[in-house]
Design a protein that fits this description.
alpha+beta; Alpha-Beta Plaits; elongated; 5 strands
Length: 338
């Protein structure tokens, strides 16, 4: 980053950045501090807008959120990767278009040439035979050379398809949480934008999921075991999501299931299935071979409303989740309970 601040200005902004971190109970490590300082500076419009939206929706800031902000708006590597992916994708598309056009042109040329040879007529049979022989020889030569070109184009097309698959894998890796294999918030926003672009009034249900007392679990058994539990729970959650839905890791022990074209009652039924499925999971320590405590989840179900922005919707989903926690945890709450 490049700042043109004087020492006094930098000191003032640094103090404001620290105050921002303290207000949200965030550690002043490099990622958090960089995000806070960029926000205070106001030069990164996208970052500032996103933070303001989160503040307005009263979304809590944690290390997970700050890392996501850093990755999406500050990290140079991600921006360069995006540009690279876009450039290569354009190249692949052009190569495929050229390959398809060339193949079509070759086939058309050969068909026309074949028909022309058959239609050739002359009053001198000997001359016609010589002409035909020469043209046939030339045709075979052209056909051979064109076939080689076609083979080369086909090979290039295959390479382009391979490259396209590699790019799709790269894009997917950027959209997937490495621990759980679920989608991350970047992928969530892209999917939601696509859904609402297709139909601004589209019905979208959200199921907010939170592991009960999981911070205490981490303190008692360690983060390594906690990560294994998170991964297993995430796999169970995704098992209840059909192809059209989107399972997301929204935070440390928080998940979100997005379901397009699903009403509140159906979403509530799916949430109850997820709750029961997780409750049935059993875990055993690989070291001590002793059974670990049962893991349960609380869930909140809400429907997206067109008049609210996406951050407000997520905040409302979290509010519904809090209802389930206040009622004793390990249960499903819907926005009708608010």
């Amino acid at each position: 980053m490049m700042y043109q601040d004087s020492i006094d200005q930098a000191g003032e902004k640094a103090a404001l950045a620290i105050a921002f971190l303290q207000r949200h109970r965030l550690a002043a490590h490099p990622v958090n501090y960089t995000v806070a300082y960029d926000y205070i500076t106001g030069a990164n419009a996208g970052l500032c807008q996103t933070i303001e939206q989160k503040l307005a929706a009263r979304i809590p800031f944690d290390d997970f959120v700050m890392t996501e902000l850093y990755s999406n708006f500050i990290s140079t590597n991600n921006k360069e990767n995006d540009q690279l992916v876009n450039r290569v994708s354009q190249l692949v598309n052009k190569l495929n278009d050229s390959s398809n056009s060339a193949n079509d042109a070759i086939s058309e040329y050969i068909d026309i040439l074949d028909h022309s040879l058959v239609a050739l007529k002359t009053e001198n049979p000997a001359q016609a035979r010589d002409t035909l022989h020469r043209m046939l020889d030339a045709t075979y030569d052209v056909r051979t050379s064109q076939q080689k070109l076609k083979d080369q184009l086909q090979h290039s097309h295959q390479q382009a398809e391979t490259l396209r698959e590699e790019l799709a894998l790269l894009k997917r890796n950027r959209q997937v949480d490495p621990l759980t294999g679920l989608y991350n918030r970047l992928a969530m926003q892209e999917h939601v934008d696509l859904w609402l672009t297709e139909d601004p009034k589209r019905k979208i249900a959200a199921i907010a999921v939170d592991l009960d007392h999981f911070r205490q679990f981490n303190q008692d058994y360690g983060f390594n075991i906690g990560d294994v539990i998170l991964s297993k729970v995430a796999k169970k959650i995704s098992a209840y999501v059909q192809e059209s839905g989107l399972p997301v890791r929204a935070g440390g022990e928080e998940f979100l299931i997005l379901l397009p074209d699903v009403d509140l009652r159906t979403a509530g039924e799916i949430a109850e299935q997820v709750r029961r499925g997780v409750e049935k999971l059993r875990f055993v320590s690989s070291r001590s071979k002793k059974a670990l405590p049962k893991v349960t989840i609380s869930l909140g179900v809400a429907l997206y409303q067109a008049e609210e922005n996406w951050h407000q919707f997520l905040a409302r989903s979290t509010q519904v989740l809090q209802v389930a926690k206040r009622r004793g945890r390990n249960q499903v709450a819907t926005e009708a309970m608010l």
